[in-house]
Design a protein that fits this description.
The chain is mainly alpha-helical. It is built from 17 helices and five strands. Strands 3-4-5 form a three-stranded antiparallel sheet. Strands 1-2 form a two-stranded antiparallel ribbon.
Amino acid sequence: MKAAIFIFVRGDANLPRKTSPQQPLEPSVVPRVSPSAVVAVAIFLVAHIALLIGLTTPNKFVFDEVHYVPAARQMLAPAMSQPMLNPMHPPLAKELIAASIAAFGDNSLGWRYPATLFGALAVVAIYLCGLALFAAQGPAIAAALIAAFNQMLYVQARIAMLDIFALGFGLLATAAFMHGFRRERPQALFALAGSLFGLAAACKWSGLFPLGVCIVIVAVIRLMQGWRTLFADAKPSDWYRPDLWPGLRLYHLVLCFAVLPGVAYLACFVPLHGLSLPDLIEAQRRIFADNTTTAIAGHTYMSAWPSWPLLARPVWFLFDKSTEDNVSAVVFLGNPLVLWPALLALALVLRDFVVERRRDAFLIAAFYFGPWLAWALLPRTLGFIYYYLPAATAASLALVYVLRRDGLPRWLLWAYVGLAAIGFVVMLPISAAFIGTSMQSFSRLMLFQSWI
């Protein structure tokens, strides 16, 4: 007796039907999971778990948590008290901290947990940027690892401040823009990028800097296309092509890079101000006034933007003596084995952008120099090295770009990743308060007088 074979078919026939052995079977529809999605989830989980270790130490405010946590607490009150705390920054990051306090309690875990989420998302975003630039899993994973081994991201992802939220949203937006840059129809990805940039700005206005970079890039390309610019020796790797984005219209650009960012940004104010237009306008006026006023008084850890790539002046987030010879320290500094070599890599990136017109070099340079040099345009003189965080994180892409150049052995990139990991481990005692270190070791790690 022949065995019956059953399959399910689409349409009105919801019951199984018998088929003959000669009749071909319909292929089963199995959802396909992208390998990149699997890798992205794995990177997120590993980074998130690593950032959670020792997160609750110390169980007290660290550095600027003294400003942002009380502001988040105020948002949880049944009725908003006056005056509003920390009105000089937009509310989204503080709203996320408030939600975490409501979920996990008013303690160090509740204050800091959202930062670990966005720190892990920032590492994933660098991986996605690497995929867009290098079109290969290995270099993209290497870029994510180098970014994770840079102490700047690690330290900022374990404290209840605003910068890591703006970084996470901003890098995800940058990844969307980079992927859209290569497509004939980038509208959907550009719209996603614009919305995410709006959320980055709703955490801190510095989130507008990479959005400005995107606007300048698109404007320059459209201007060159309007002038009918041609490269005499055009190559597929050129950052500019006269046929780039043929279906992209002006209203698409306005929607993606003005309307959607604006809507996403303003929506974050609604929980505090409702739909009151005067209150929304006053909130923006206050933020603008507080962030464009030239600072008169100095600060112990202030530094100027030209010094940030050199790591000339770190910020001590925490320095507690537990005994005469033991300290718990959190120093926002950065991994010298990552950030100093990155300066050489960036010089080669600039050279390839100018001489060879390479698209990947152009995008790396734009999203490194744009968010960093934007600080030079602000009138205020008060600055800190953690403002360099977005550019420093993007620098990992420059290192991978150089280390995978033609003629270099493949193992060199992974050897450098190992070197970056060694630098991370060496500096970990002054980056995580739960580890602690001796005064002798701390002094040994303070290589320059300006670090003290």
